[in-house]
Amino acid sequence: MNIAVIGLGSMGRRRIRLIQQYNNSFKIIGIDLNKERRDISEAEFGIDTKDSLEEVIKYYDLNCAIICTSPLSHNKLTQISLENNLHVFTELNLVTEGYDENVQLAEAKKKVLFLSSTFLYRAEIKEINRLVKEQDNKLNYTYHIGQYLPDWHPWENYKDFFVGDKRTNGCREIFAIELPWLIEVFGNVKDIIVRKSKISSLNIDYDDNYIVIFEHESGHKGVVAVDIVSRKAVRNLEVFGENIYLSWDGSANGLKMMDIKNKKEENIHLYEKVDQLGQYSQFVVENAYYDEIKSFFDVIAKAIEPIYNFEKDKKILELIDRIEA
């Protein structure tokens, strides 16, 4: 299989590493306008690189495109890839431009159009989902996700990548990461109450913190605090009801459940081996990214339904639009 990975930043290189881990016989061609990124990828992974998708399509017999560029470029790259009969895997889009057209094009071309939603593949999320679904009673939850924006990519200015743009801002990305699994676990959203503002001195033209109350159709309720101002990177979840108390600090080994009888919190161990890279925080678990890549190739080979798709994501982005409005 011949695969074009478009965008050789940190996410593109992650996907290359994991594809090689999945099947090192696949031929990968990296694409990036930045020569330094191409050189790094050639040296690190032993792959060919080019600066143009059209050139790679012309000279290589491609099967798939993995799109890892900034979100506002995804629509056009997806369209070009589908028109050239490629299966497509795309990272978070954050905007719905081209969604309907590309879904229709993928159906017409009989090609897989696969959208990333990595947290749905986290073992901790799957376990939280199982435990919540076992409960007969209604539950509440509190969830705080925050990290100071300049710390996201310390090697570059936050104005120089997509979170500096109001359309694809940092808080919007956090919501787009977290809401798919929150809705999967607690149910579709019935109502929301939003409080938001800008409290930092960051050079941005959008709100940098949100507190949102979610009422779910299931009867569960939650308070979600999202920000890009917290000087400590945090992901703190509590789920509580009469018969359950769960907590999760976002790390691979940080899911705990209260033993109600013995009044003691106990860790829930879910991994035989945790794959993590030193340059990322404890919240970044490579296992889920690998499982997502595997799922993409399984969808191609076995024609199974992916657990997330563009139709679901369109509803998520419409909900984020409501939150931001």
Automatic annotation (TrEMBL):
One of its GO terms (molecular function) is nucleotide binding. Residues 1-114 form the Gfo/Idh/MocA-like oxidoreductase N-terminal domain. This is Predicted dehydrogenase. It comes from Anoxynatronum buryatiense. PANTHER family: BILIVERDIN REDUCTASE A (PTHR43377:SF1). It holds the Pfam family GFO_IDH_MocA.
